Automatic annotation (TrEMBL):
Keywords: Carbohydrate metabolism, Glycosidase, Hydrolase. GO terms for molecular function: endo-alpha-N-acetylgalactosaminidase activity; sucrose alpha-glucosidase activity. Pfam families: Glyco_hydro_100. PANTHER family: ALKALINE_NEUTRAL INVERTASE C, MITOCHONDRIAL, PTHR31916. This is Alkaline/neutral invertase. Belongs to the glycosyl hydrolase 100 family. Its EC number is 3.2.1.26. It comes from Daucus carota. It catalyses: Hydrolysis of terminal non-reducing beta-D-fructofuranoside residues in beta-D-fructofuranosides. GO terms for cellular component: mitochondrion. The keyword RNA-binding does not apply. Transmembrane segments: none annotated.
Length: 675
């Protein structure tokens, strides 16, 4: 057994993965044995603030002992014992392997999240929740039951395979026993190829599938970080697997990425906030110190400290929450979201997003490149994509958070934010003919709480392309809103996700789809779909992208066409009862994707060329296509992935924080947006 896992396993290879253990005595040995590389005199304060450093590893084998899987370039992480005076020190990757092949790894990420958490403060003061790391709680060890490799994933209660009938397409990875739980129709050759490629992109960690690599082009000798599992890229893969009745890989992914959360990473001596999820991770097989010929798998996350531009992966945590809900809805396995460590993971992400800063708006303030567009494109501030994902993640969390004394303030904060956020976006991000005309006639420099032009937008900013482009009916949410600045570009993901999550009003959602239909030649053309429209050109390109040669006009993030967006479009179309639109787009993609070797993106105004620097065999292109097909065939499953208007949210008063200075309560305004 040369690759086993962080596990307590009983003869069967990799039967269980132990994520967390509060009490070392459960396994009869002391964690302190692993602490040779770390200081033990960590103060409470330090411990509270810091998570962990290093990487997760797994290793099996015979014999008895401990191992500390710490990257020499990184520090180990620290866990608390039941006694603050003597903090227990743990290392990610510390494990004992016993002679019966049982292997135990104790992980601090989960260790600290399993200790007591306490909530302090209340919604209206700014610290609605603090999660303390404290020992002494009697928390059950968290265990993932492993499903035997090659064995069909044990269906959770209520789990339904898509349409029931199985079509074997030859599965080399053994996921779901090689079955495509597919439709009453013949699976096309293109789909068969796509499934094979998707399965070929699966990454194993300690013998279990944990994700899919971003791209697997055999001819690419410089994959950069495309050989990693990206959190956002895995979402369509996960959905394809889930819709095909395969939950194991998704569950593994969710739990392993949870382990990586709060890893302490630093860029030039500065660490990002606790709760941050990595942009990606890589499974590495490394030699074991002092054991000739033996190696082990480790998980090495990237929180942006290696990424080009050192961009912060703000969207990762949001996607993680969205995927967790999708997993629950599609498998019926409610047990996963109810776990202590999973609940804590959700809370850490929310705490990070809901922490107050200097911002005046309910939207999330981020730096450029913090989402799918992960390089300079002028989307710093409050870009729509992040807001739409934020809103979706809040809606998911509202459903998943277990309400008790320690979470009630957080839940209240989530509700408040949801209503404030939707009001803000619906009111200030929306443009259609009527609104543009209003902006055109704006007065500026209004000093009053009653100002109509609240953001002091100068009408001359309305770009000439927009005047001609905006259809009579239809509209969309602009890409970004900042003081005195509206970014009028159409960003597809944000608009689609606003439909899916009902961030837009029902009428706005309908109008967005009308606009896409009306502007089909610009937004879909030869390959669905434009990532944004229009491209930045000339001086704007020079100033905003910093003359980025990868983001030249109508290429890559700057107006390139990204087939992965097809699944989000499909979901939006199904929700708005226009599946025929999605079918049209899927048919376009199906005609070309396989022939073009599944490119990452297409270039030119109409998406006619394979992108200049586009990777081939890009996994989320493949998975996006398969997911679209599966969604169209199973609209009832699709309906579990979107949200309708929540009228309760419109009732909540966003003015709860303080009434002074407010003339009007937004509750009525929010309702009137819909009515
Ligand atoms: C590019 C994309 C990013 C994606 C990554 C891996 O950097 O901009 O969204 O996650 O490639 O595919």
């Amino acid at each position: 057994m040369n690759t086993t896992c962080i596990a307590v396993s009983n003869m069967r290879p990799c039967c269980r993965m132990l994520l967390s253990c509060k009490n070392s005595s459960i396994f009869g040995y002391s964690f302190r044995k692993c602490d040779h590389r770390m200081g033990t005199n960590l103060s409470k304060k330090q411990f509270k603030v810091y998570g962990l450093r290093g990487y997760v590893s797994c290793r099996g084998g015979k014999g008895l002992g401990y191992r500390c899987g710490i990257d020499p370039n990184r520090k180990g992480f620290f866990g608390s014992g039941s006694d603050w005076g003597q903090p227990r020190v743990l290392t990610s990757g510390c494990r004992r392997v016993d002679s019966g092949g049982r292997s135990v790894l104790v992980n601090v990420a989960s260790d600290y999240r399993n200790h007591s958490t306490s909530v302090e403060g209340h919604v209206n003061d700014k610290s609605f929740e603090r999660i303390y790391v404290r020992g002494g709680l009697n928390v059950k060890p968290l265990v993932i039951e492993r499903v035997e490799k090659g064995e069909k994933v044990r269906e959770e209660e209520g789990r339904v395979g898509v349409n029931g009938s199985n079509v074997n397409i030859g599965d080399s990875k053994g996921l779901n026993g090689g079955k495509v739980l597919s439709p009453k129709r013949e699976v096309s050759e293109v789909e068969k190829e796509a499934w094979e490629l998707l399965r070929g992109a699966v990454v194993d960690y300690c013998g279990n599938p944990v994700g899919t690599v971003a791209a697997s082009d055999p001819a690419d000798s410089t994959p950069l970080n495309y050989d990693q599992v990206f959190i956002r890229d895995f979402v369509p893969s996960a959905l394809a697997f889930l819709l095909n009745g395969e939950g194991e890989i998704v569950k593994n992914f969710l739990l392993h990425t949870l382990q990586l959360q709060s890893w302490e990473k630093t860029v030039d001596c500065h660490s990002p906030g606790q709760g941050l999820m990595p942009a990606s991770f890589k499974v590495k097989n490394v030699a074991i110190d002092g054991k000739i010929g033996e190696s082990e798998d480790i998980l090495d996350p990237d929180f942006g400290e290696s990424a080009i531009g050192r961009v912060a992966p703000v969207d990762s945590g949001l996607w993680w929450i969205i995927l967790l809900r999708a997993y629950t809805k599609l498998t019926g396995d409610y047990g996963l979201q109810a776990r202590v460590d999973v609940q804590t993971g959700i809370r850490l992400i929310l705490n990070l997003c809901l922490t107050d800063g200097f911002d005046m708006f309910p939207t999330l303030l981020v730096t450029d490149g913090s989402c799918m567009i992960d390089r300079r494109m002028g989307i710093h501030g409050h870009p729509l994509e992040i807001q739409a994902l934020f809103y979706s993640a809040l809606r998911c969390s509202r459903e998943m958070l277990i309400v008790n004394d320690s979470t009630k303030n957080l839940v209240a904060a989530v509700n408040n934010r949801l209503s404030a956020l939707s009001f803000h976006i619906r009111e200030y991000y929306w443009v259609d003919m009527k609104k543009i005309n209003e902006i055109y006639r704006y007065k500026t420099e209004e000093y009053s709480t009653d100002a109509i032009n609240k953001f002091n937008i100068y009408p001359d900013q309305i770009p000439s392309w927009l005047v001609d482009w905006m259809p009579e009916t239809g509209g969309y949410l602009i890409g970004n809103l900042q003081p005195a600045h509206m970014d009028f570009r159409f960003f597809t993901l944000g608009n689609l996700w606003s439909i899916v999550s009902s961030l837009g009003t029902p009428k706005q959602n309908e109008s967005i789809l009308n606009l896409i239909e009306d502007k089909w030649d610009d937004l879909v053309a030869h390959m669905p779909l434009k990532i944004c429209y229009p491209a930045l050109e000339y001086e704007e390109w020079r100033v905003i992208t910093g003359s980025d040669p990868k983001n030249t006009p109508w290429s890559y993030h700057n107006g390139g066409s990204w087939p992965t967006l097809l699944w989000q479009f499909t979901l939006a179309c199904i929700k708005m009862k226009k599946p025929e639109l999605a079918r049209k787009a899927v048919a376009l993609a199906e005609k070309k994707l396989s022939e073009d070797h599944w490119p990452e993106y297409y270039d030119t105004r109409r998406g006619r060329f394979i992108g200049k620097q586009s990777r081939l065999y890009q996994t989320w292109t493949i998975a996006g296509f398969l997911t679209s097909k599966l969604l169209l065939e199973n609209p009832e499953m699709a309906s579990k992935l979107f949200w309708e208007e929540d009228y309760e949210l419109l009732e909540s008063c966003v003015c709860a924080i303080g009434k002074s200075g407010r003339k009007k309560c937004s509750r009525f305004a929010a309702k009137s947006q819909v009515v």
